[in-house]
Design brief:
This protein is α+β, with helices and mostly antiparallel strands and 81 residues long. Helix content is 43%, strand content 19%. It contains four helices and three strands, in the order βααββαα.
Length: 81
Amino acid sequence: MRRKGAEEARNQLPDLLAAAEKGRSTLITRHGRPVAALVPVGSHGAGARQQPLLPLEASGRGLWGKNSTHTIRKIRDEWSR
């Protein structure tokens, strides 16, 4: 992965975009600290896919105890004071 300062990256943006199209990534720094990465689109989505929520369906069962009505009333009564 190449490293470029922010000003240099701004001046060379067309070249960096062409490099990204060819599969090369560039790390953009400010004052020597990494602040952004210009990566090919194909590699961006590979590790950042959101997991589906369906496996979590109904996973809250038992969260409020055996008698959820009692627990909720107790909590509501605490806030009513």
